[in-house]
Amino acid sequence: MPPTPSDVVICTTIDEMHNQVAFARSSGHTIGCVPTMGYLHEGHASLIQTAAQHHGLVVVSIFVNPTQFGPSEDFERYPRDLERDLAVLRQAGATHLFLPSVTEMYPDGVRSTIHIDGITDILEGASRPTHFDGVATVVARLFQAMLPDEAYFGQKDLQQTLVIQRLVQTHTDAAVSNTRITILPTIREHDGLAKSSRNVYLNEEDRRNATVIYQALTYAQNSIVRGERSRSVIEQQMLHILTSVDALRVDYAVAVDASTLRGAADLISERTALCIAVKLGTTRLIDNMLVELPTA
Ligand code: AMP
User: How confident is the model over 248-265, as pLDDT tens digits?
Assistant: First the structure.
């Protein structure tokens, strides 16, 4: 049965959020949270629905975090639509919306940032050098505001999930280190394109061309299933498919170890992540697939 739409409590300050959490805990509820930048779609909704199956207070944050955007990126034009988002929240079963201002999150500006080593200098981190410092810093602050037992993230942003898992392993504040991280599968459009708030930027032709990302990922996945084990061959196969679209610029198309996101040898790992980032017009799109080799 679909959840009954109900009113979502909106908290704009950390104090309000803490009060709501304290009240929920005193009533015996646990807290599930879903950090987002808004312009919600079915990918976000699947995280919220899962959180609602496990927790009495389900809080979704909507915060377009300026510190995770580079100077020439799309912070200003990032899509925003609160009314539409509220409808998604109600339908998916969220009880609370945390909607802080930039000054609520960064009252003294951004004096210190959190840097996670080892995983942030490659792939997205290579193309967007300060991105993951912004992500780790804001996620720690969001956890300190929402005080969740469990936080839900999408595999769609695979590298981000690894950064956040390391964040909770290394952070000293219990609000961060005690948060359980749950990763859920990528929700896709009918033609395979991963749902993303940024898909709205695509014109008709770019939207059609964007399906080539999923085609490259599934081709590589099938190629591994059929027995191909050479990393360079698999990467060439993905590149070949992606470059069939003239208008598309490939940032990376790699077959790497799923936990380090690096590929040391030409032989793919037992758990391989196929990761792609491309630019179509001015829109940057990322996607990935995980492939496990059959055990002999
Ligand atoms: P965003 O609003 O883009 O920052 O995303 C908020 C959360 O939703 C992140 O954990 C994303 O990985 C997740 N997410 C975004 N797109 C999808 C998708 N298509 N399927 C599942 N989760 C997603």
Answer: 999 999 999 999 999 988
Mutate to test the pocket of ligand 1, among 33, 156, 179 (most ligand atoms within 8 A of CB): 156
Rounded to the nearest 10°, the torsion over CA 205, 208, 212, 214 is 140
| Residue 44 a catalytic site member | yes
Atom 18, ligand 1: residue with shortest CA distance: 43
Distance CA 171, CA 169 (A): 6
Amino acid at 162: L
> Among candidates 286, 43, 29, 261, which has minimal Cα distance to 152?
43
DSSP structure class, residue 137: H
Q: Directed axis angle between helix 158-170 and helix 131-146, to 10°?
A: 60
Q: What pTM value is reported for the model?
A: 0.96
Both tokens assigned to 185: 């599968």
Torsion of CA 101, 102, 104, 106, to 10 degrees: 170
CA of 149 to the centre of ligand 1 (A): 19
Q: Is 43 in the pocket of ligand 1 (CB under 6 A)?
A: yes
Residues 6 or more apart whose Cβ sits within 8 Å of residue 15: none
Tokens, residue 4: 């009954």
Which residue in the list 18, 41, 44, 55 is annotated as catalytic? Answer: 44
User: Residue 75 corresponds to which tokens in the numbers above?
Assistant: 């912070």
> What are the tens digits of pLDDT across the range 124-164?
999 999 999 999 999 999 999 999 999 999 999 999 999 99
Match 């929240």 to its residue by tokens. 89
Distance CA 134, CA 112 (A): 10
**Pocket flag, ligand 1, residue 45 (CB < 6 Å):** no
Residue length of the chain:
296
- The response to whether residue 61 sits with its C-beta less than 6 Å from ligand 1 reads no
